[in-house]
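Slide 14.
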Amino acid sequence: MILLAEVECFIYETQSLKQKRSVIKKIITRIQNEYNIAISEMEYQDLWQRTKLGLVTISSNKVQAERVINQAFAMIDSFPEIERTLTNTEWL
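Slide 15: predicted structure.
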């Protein structure tokens, strides 16, 4: 089972693309180190306070894939400098 999630986020208090990349890199690195998830910034690379992240996991069953993706969502939500606004998931 392949589960794809697209997560749009608003990043608070960034004044440059450099600050935005720092926040995004910290989140991506922690998620990759903690979970077996591929993650990357998909859109809005040129905007300071907005991003869209793509997360993908592969598992032998749906329950495990959903658990891992939900844990990644919780980790994103744990960062105070970012707010998850829209989340879409899709089975492939």
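Speaker note: The first helix runs from residue 17 to 34.
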